[in-house]
Amino acid sequence: MSLHKVGRIVVAVVAAMLILIGLAYLLFPMEILSLTGQFTIDGDALIDVRATYGGIQLGLGLFLGIQLIKRENIIFSLFLLAVIFTSVGGIRLVSALVEEDLSYLHMLAALAEIASAAGCMLLSKSIAKKTN
């Protein structure tokens, strides 16, 4: 299997996951938020959760899906995922240093996000080398 095809599969899987997570935040925000602790939020905060968590993830998933359908630059999509995974994982790690109550779930998520970022970046660079 070619690296380009592997890259397309990675982007497709992440796009599908982001769309599903985005929809989950839109439809069941309290249930999703409660997976990492108890939350009591008012209607305005609930709108922000739906818009921010649901909207951004759904939008990014749809963007990646459109990139796949249009057969646009897979290298760019992988690089975008690397930047996003690095940002999210990095913020989790920095937050873990600041907060006193660290959950293993967040630490595992941070490590998975950083590893995913590295994988996307390596795959992006490998595809770019092969096409040049």
Automatic annotation (TrEMBL):
Keywords: Membrane, Transmembrane, Transmembrane helix. Pfam families: DUF4345. The chain crosses the membrane at residues 9-30, 50-69, 76-98, 104-123. The keyword Transferase does not apply. It comes from the Bacteria. InterPro entries: DUF4345 (IPR025597). This is DUF4345 family protein. It comes from Zhongshania arctica.
